[in-house]
Amino acid sequence: MTENAQPGSKQRILVVEDEPTIARAVADRLAAEGFAVETAGDGPSAVERARSYGPDLIVLDLMLPGFDGLEVCRRVQAERSVPVLMLTARDDETDLLVGLGVGADDYITKPFSMRELVARVRTVLRRFERAEPSAAPGPGPGTAEPSGAPLRLGPLEIDQRARRVRRDGREVHLTPTEYELLGCLARHPGTVLTRALLLEQVWDWADASGTRAVDSHIKALRRKLGADLIRTVHGVGYSFEVPA
């Protein structure tokens, strides 16, 4: 819960999207899920609305009139820390966000399902509210590391207390969802985890209808950490592999 929210109140979402049809559809679905929602249609009004509304999360389109979502994210984050779920139209826009590290906590590529969007919103809010990483063990066989103990797996180090990841000593910025997905895999190296299990553990989804979300985040992890750490088991899922 952010500093502006009151106990027991609805969590506030600001939807920033210049296409009225998309903005209305997203706002209506989030309102139906129990959130308080307001909208903005351009960069300047988004910054002003974020300042006055005090949202718990911003759903932010990358391409906006006035100035783009990157500038909105910079200006909002300069005033207060608020999680941002960025909407992108193409994979190369996602690559841009990853490369710039603008402060977005997650991203989703259009077209997306409303079910996936709601799941991403809930995931980002849950990660943002956590003061400490969860002490619950991860899925699958084996013994998970104690809560807070660093994971060192070949060239990879996961500092669970600080929620930081390093590869070959170089810190790598991960979104909250990417961090949780990596941790879920890395706690059980060599074990194949199904997409359905990953959805349940990372996204809190009870069914396997959103496997595209897993695949897109695996792609992002490989782009950031290298392609040698996560192995695809076709038709089943993924496993974390420690390089020789």
TrEMBL record:
Q: Does the keyword Transcription apply?
A: yes
Top-rank taxon: Bacteria
Positions of modified residues (4-aspartylphosphate): D61
The record places domain Response regulatory at 12-125
Q: Where is this region: Disordered?
A: 130-152
The entry's DNA-binding region: 148-242
| Low complexity composition-biased segments | 133-150
Print the keywords alphabetically: DNA-binding, Phosphoprotein, Transcription, Transcription regulation
Cite the InterPro entries for this sequence: CheY-like_superfamily, OmpR/PhoB-type_DNA-bd, Sig_transdc_resp-reg_C-effctor, Sig_transdc_resp-reg_receiver, WalR-like, WH-like_DNA-bd_sf
Ranges for domain OmpR/PhoB-type come to 148-242
- Respond yes or no to whether keyword Protein biosynthesis is given for this record: no
Which PANTHER family did the record assign? DNA-BINDING DUAL TRANSCRIPTIONAL REGULATOR OMPR, REGULATOR OF RPOS
The molecule here is called: Response regulator transcription factor
Organism, scientific name: Actinomadura fulvescens
